[in-house]
Amino acid sequence: MDLSIVIPLLNEEESLPELEQWIRLVMEREGYSYEIIFVDDGSTDKSWKIIKEMIAQRDTVKGIKFRRNYGKSAALNTGFAQAEGEVVFTMDADLQDSPEELPEMRRMILEEDFDIVSGWKKKRFDPLSKTIPTKLYNGVTTWMSGIKLHDMNCGLKAYRKEVVKSIEVYGEMHRYIPVIAKWSGFVKVGEKVVQHQARKYGETKFGLSRFVKGPLDLLSIMFVGKFSKQPMHFFGAMGGMVFFIGFLLFFILGVNKAYHLAIGETAKNLADISWFYVGLTAMIIGTMLFVTGFLAELVSRNAPHRNMYLIEEELGWEKERKVTIL
Q1: CA distance 69 to 67
Q2: CATH class of 3-228
Q3: Dihedral of CA 196/22/163/295: which sign?
Q4: Where are the domains positioned within the chain?
């Protein structure tokens, strides 16, 4: 199969038929074999009913329905697991991403050997309350990750199949998939200017909370990417350094007391010196950090799968199935 298109959605009943038709026209014009995987993230409108109707009419349409809203990361991760195309695309369901961009992005993956091609909505139809924080977010992400993208959070992206099969997206990490992929060894990331459509139906599903969660998620990814396999390298090194500082203070205080006693002077009781408690605290914290690193090593070697989603239905594959992941 030439490509898979994973589309997470929440209450987008009005845009779904138009989006499927637009994608189909582009795919048929280019002669691609393809699949559209709609992942309904707990919609409360008629979105799933419309998806089921499209599945009944088109063998290129497939669908996954969550029993409740788990978030975009969960939807993408589940769609990635089912995707079979040589190149896997993600796009939003609100008609703001244009399917006309897909052929060129696919070419960049296959002919220019990119692992990821990210869309860049250079001209946006968003209010300043959204565009200014987005620019700040992109700048900070570029500085921290070393990945130079103008629009890290653009929903329109293309991935080599090996990328989506090798990464795990959970929590709110969908904003940083290129960063996650980089830490997995997929370092060739390209960018393409794409057309941004004004929202035609409904309202945006993203609120101000993403500006709080975003930086925290980035810090988490940077830490996990660097130390997830050897957390002892972080906690052990820090704990050892802090413990050594405390031990050094103890040693200096001990030598100082021994010196005063040796020359016949009265020496203070160590418990009466404030630096004694600083050193003691440092040794305790250092020990705790070291133990934390040891426990983190045990957890990292035995961690269960993070993504546990209760799926109500999956349609469009060889047979209809109901799946419960416990």
Answers
A1: 7
A2: alpha beta
A3: positive
A4: 3-228, 231-302
63 touches 35 (CB < 8 A):
no
SS3 labels along the chain: CCEEEEEEECCCCCCHHHHHHHHHHHHHHHCCCEEEEEEECCCCCCHHHHHHHHHHHCCCEEEEEECCCCCHHHHHHHHHHHCCCCEEEECCCCCCECHHHHHHHHHHHHHCCCCEEEEECCCCCCCHHHHHHHHHHHHHHHHHHCCCCCCCCCCCEEEEHHHHCCCCCCCCHHHHHHHHHHHCCCCCEEEEECCECCCCCCCCCCCCCHHHHHHHHHHHHHHHHHHCCCHHHHHHHHHHHHHHHHHHHHHHHHHHHHHHHHCCCCCCCHHHCHHHHHHHHHHHHHHHHHHHHHHHHHHHHHCCCCCCCCEEEEECCCCCECCCCC
Residues in CB range of 231: below 8 A, 6 or more apart: 293, 296, 297, 300
Give residue-wise pLDDT tens across range 301-322: 565 555 556 677 788 876 555 5
pLDDT tens-digit map of 259-280: 888 888 877 888 888 888 999 9
Q: Tokens at residue 49, please?
A: 């009913």
pTM of this prediction exceeds 0.85: no
φ, ψ dihedrals at 49, nearest 5°: -60, -40
Angle between helices 210-227 and 231-262 (to 10 degrees): 80
As a three-state string, the secondary structure of 162-215 is HHHCCCCCCCCHHHHHHHHHHHCCCCCEEEEECCECCCCCCCCCCCCCHHHHHH
Question: Over pLDDT 90: what percentage of the chain?
Answer: 49
Place 324 in a pLDDT band, splitting at 50, 70 and 90: very low
